[in-house]
Amino acid sequence: MTEMVHDTIEVEAPLREVYDQWTQFEEFPRFMSGVEEVRQLDDRLCHWRTKVAGATREFDTEIIDQLPDERIAWRTVGGDVKQRGVVTFERVDDAHTRVRLSMEVEPSGIADKAAKAIGVVESQVEGDLHRFKDYIEDRDHATGGWRGRLRPADSSGEPAPAAPAAPEGDMLPGGMPAPPSGTVPRRAGPPYDGPM
């Protein structure tokens, strides 16, 4: 059974800078707990190595929709890690940006199901967003940026799994539910292997 996790944070940095930093996937181990390495294979594909609760996992993710300064949606491809999600970026004012992360994860074993029961995913997502906030606010500019547009129609050709009903009924391109506005109560979920 899949679980949805949502979290939102406001970052004291301009929209373009925040978005550009998030596109630097190989920097994710600097602020994401349990992420040991991310290698960007091409514009769409990344290879991940994570270590969560003592278990090392390697898997690939595919970006299925990327629109500069608005959103990045992804899904895992192959392997035993099953997840997909979307991160959206919203300008609050010239110096502040709201980052919303909505992720669907599917437990793949006993450890995952036990972690789901104690809310490990929510805690990890919340911590990762706070560490991202600190990471971007502690520097004068993003460490890089990729401004390309990737569309769902150009993805690997494998159909994306059907998305669950969005909490507010809105859907983003690519079939991902729109993250809810405001704060959403925490929900239990399986171990988090990083949001990309």
Rounded to the nearest angstrom, the distance between the terminal CA atoms is 20 Å
Share of residues in helices:
10-25%
| Proportion of strand residues | 25-35%
Shape: globular
How are the strands ordered across the major sheet?
1-7-6-5-4-3-2
Biggest sheet character = 7 strands, antiparallel
Task: Map the helices and strands.
Elements: E1 3-11, H1 15-22, E2 35-40, E3 45-52, E4 55-67, E5 71-77, E6 82-93, E7 96-106, H2 110-117, H3 120-137
Antiparallel strand pairs: 1-7, 2-3, 3-4, 4-5, 5-6, 6-7
Structure description:
This protein has 196 residues and is of the alpha+beta class. Helices cover 17% and strands 34% of the residues. It has 3 helices and 7 strands, in the order βαββββββαα. It has helices spanning 15-22, 110-117, 120-137; strands at residues 3-11, 35-40, 45-52, 55-67, 71-77, 82-93, 96-106. It has a 7-stranded antiparallel beta sheet with strand order 1-7-6-5-4-3-2, covered by helices on one side. A hairpin with a 4-residue loop joins β5 (71-77) and β6. The radius of gyration is 15 Å and the shape is globular. Mean pLDDT is 79; it is low at 159-196.
List keywords for this structure.
single chain; 196 residues; alpha+beta; seven-stranded antiparallel sheet; 3 helices; disordered C terminus
Compact description:
By secondary structure, the chain is α+β, with helices and mostly antiparallel strands. The protein is 17% helix and 34% strand.
